[in-house]
Fold each of these.
Amino acid sequence: MKDFPLSKAYQLIEPGPVVLLTTRHDGKANVMTMSWHMMMEFTPPRIACIVSGADYSFIALAKTEECVIAIPSVEIAEKVVAAGNCSGRDIDKFAEIGLTPLPAAKVSAPLIAECFANLECKVVDQDFVERYNLFVLEVVKAWHDPARPSPKTIHHKGYGTFAVDGEDITLDSKMP
Amino acid sequence: MKDFPLSKAYQLIEPGPVVLLTTRHDGKANVMTMSWHMMMEFTPPRIACIVSGADYSFIALAKTEECVIAIPSVEIAEKVVAAGNCSGRDIDKFAEIGLTPLPAAKVSAPLIAECFANLECKVVDQDFVERYNLFVLEVVKAWHDPARPSPKTIHHKGYGTFAVDGEDITLDSKMP
């Protein structure tokens, strides 16, 4: 994993990929699958996400206020779905599913070696948690794997069906 | 446009497509391009989105508390980018760009005929607008074009580059 500019973090999240969210609480790392997230601000890069109170990760996220958003490509789609099909209450998902935790630089939650990008995040606002389970995150460090410049992400369309990235097109846009 | 079940609205938004957001204020319809949105709740279908105070649509959305999220496919990608490259302050975007407004059922903002799906929305919470420009929407009526069952959406990766949906894959998921 190599350093990735924070100012470009939105280019990873804005397209709506399914991501993995890691946490570490009481020494125990966990990972969940997540599609309900969005960019909120370019600088500092801020991300909103929904983590249900029913998810085992909820308490870890709320208490430690740290997490990693790890972005998988289609090659590990089966592991991504597997992470969504079980709970960290019952098992060590990293060991069971075959995901490799790596130490992060600024948060206790682990990076995931198999993901082409990892965003270290701190929870900066929980005011919408009670009402909507909405956490506001700030990306404090970003990593990517330069060996995989054009990863194909997956986008959940419901009930285990995912659109895989196809071709890229570029149009003359004034938008960053 | 045919009726589409509200309970499945998330299947349109969760994959992270670039969308068009329409409003109508003081009799004038407008449309903007938007990628910063996410599902918040299945039932009622709730969507969060960021609309900058610098966007001309901001006042219309905040004052009328109504909008339509229209979902385009790749065939009209140039129109989607064009809608993001200009402001409704200066022109009638529908006429200039060649988008056809259609009357909605429950909101004053128009549907867009060229989009394969349209979600009529009401703003239900502005408590995070001042802090983050974050609007909470509830989908009150959904439409889709049954003539286009497998539209390819586009996902913004920054500076006018978009990933176009490729193939679908289906895995054995417990997630809705």
Amino acid sequence: MIEHPRIANGWFRELSDDHFPGQALMLKVEEVLHHSKSEFQDILLFKSAEYGNVLVLDGIIQCTERDEFAYQEMISHVPLYSHKNPKKILVIGGGDGGVIREVVKHSCVESVTLVEIDRTVIELSEKYLPKMSSAFNHPKVDVKLCDGFKFLKETAGLNSVEKYDVIITDSSDPDGPAEAFFQKEYFQLIFNALKKDGIMIAQASENIWLDLNYLKNLMKTSRSIFKNTQYCYTMVPTYTSGQLGLIVCSKDETIDITVPQRKPDIKEQGLLRYYNPDIHSASFVLPTWANTIINVE
Amino acid sequence: MIEHPRIANGWFRELSDDHFPGQALMLKVEEVLHHSKSEFQDILLFKSAEYGNVLVLDGIIQCTERDEFAYQEMISHVPLYSHKNPKKILVIGGGDGGVIREVVKHSCVESVTLVEIDRTVIELSEKYLPKMSSAFNHPKVDVKLCDGFKFLKETAGLNSVEKYDVIITDSSDPDGPAEAFFQKEYFQLIFNALKKDGIMIAQASENIWLDLNYLKNLMKTSRSIFKNTQYCYTMVPTYTSGQLGLIVCSKDETIDITVPQRKPDIKEQGLLRYYNPDIHSASFVLPTWANTIINVE
């Protein structure tokens, strides 16, 4: 059996959140499928008893076959349905392929560029997560193997003609290669790379039950670039505390991103398992104490 | 140090859900405060590293000092604000005192009867969970030490004058002494004990990520008595998958329980940390796949 420091007695135990070390999730392991260290990170894939195949980067669960749609659908469809007519989409990270699979469900989308730093993640997803990685060869999809921060700086800069309608940052947490994605300079690069009615979304790496102060500061960082910054969440049972925060921003301050600007057409609706227009708006509604810290103070 | 079969190497590991044994939550233990077997159940109290004191019954986390308000507020205020003028309230279970603490925040409430089977839970909560058990001596509160099922059958029956505006079932899961609270006969007893505009709520013991089929059947059982049965949820990080389902029913079929009938007054509002009118409605909004199974099929 392939060994991994987080697996013992047939159970995987997630590395606790640095900001919140007193809790941990365990998943029962049926078979370890792969373990290696790529140029960028520690990569583990295992078959779990209840959640299908699981992808783990640097000790943190990234996705499982059973619940991945809750994350992929919300990080894709909240910004895409907040835009009236999104045609040109940029995805930073997302090497498992789940986000681009969701993006190409929109018939209005004309092109999707995926920028992933780690080729190994794409290759392993194609092997072990076939339902997530199904869109890599889609005719509208273009894959760039490079650092997302550098890509934005060099290719999609202030004077570039490469401007996007929606930019989705589907990164891992800030402790690994994704650290730069949580800094002010990155929000500025995204701002510059968006069209004037563009929308961006990024995973917040925390939720209201973990480090709320970190989240508050991240929102402040975002608001220093995008005045129209909102927080929503998606419920994913294999993420710490069962939920993950998402930061959604609109370059145009007059757009209310908590309300969908379009509804799924019949064809799109048939392809969606989690997202619907009601949950779009409900996902921005927070308990009073968290709302006060994130949005009022 | 006091021993408990679920604690090893300084970590508490929750007994996995019978319906879903492949995942488990762990909490770091600072000190075991109490372990005993009462007449009814195994009772553990420990001080955790991040969640304050934790109450565990039969191996399942019931509440922690850090996140208990998410459960107590939603199971109390969703039914109470769904009622225009609730005066007479019955709480079945809830021996930790958290629900009655919330109920007496409503100035319109005139009396609260708490029916708890296990005296030990009340005594231990008064000792180790002082912020939850603060309302036991409130002048509007009456505590009955008996089985809730029997109480309803004998005291609050069909021809009794003891009818309630709101009945809250704050029980443990159906595998222990609370088993009867998940049966059709119990829903009928509650129906009989409610006034004609009465509202009831009960914890569903599952959520949409666990045994959705069990939840669907529980909803069917409830709908065979209360045609107006709805599902909502609250987000509690120390419950499995980070959320818990609640079944809410109105005896009057014309009332829309997904919309508050009253809003918190200024005094009440200052006492609430989780509940607000927006989250009341948002908590009934489900992802498409779960909504289809619970509410459409």
